[in-house]
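Medium/long-chain acyl-CoA thioesterase YigI
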Amino acid sequence: MEPSPVLDLATARRTLDSQPFSRLLGARLTSFGGGGATLELDIREELHQQNGFLHGGVLAYAADNALTFAAGAVLGPYVLTGGFSVQYVRPATGRTLRARAEVVHAGRRQAVVRCDLLTLAEDGAETLCAVAQGTVLPVQAP
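Tokens:
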């Protein structure tokens, strides 16, 4: 059995960077560990929907990845999202999307994780735009 990689912010960032879609969106991890993770991406025009708001699919992507990274900080590096839901609170506008996830409960078979999706204005003020919750499952190492 191979030892698990050390789970730290640098390792988590390398994992995120290995995801082509995350690179396409310009996502970055700004914190990781202790059952939490924060993922951010710059809001740019090509990520908007027809009314000028950040597309809901981008919010769902951010929630999915933040949930999974937060759970990975507790369950180990080999995890997959079992499912999640997103409740959109208000249209997402601003300069940056921040997905801040925290493990609510972790057992041997799954972790339940909550994620607040916030936008940051030019002055740094945060506005809650969606809330997500999901389950993340440990899987066998590839």
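The mean pLDDT is 95.
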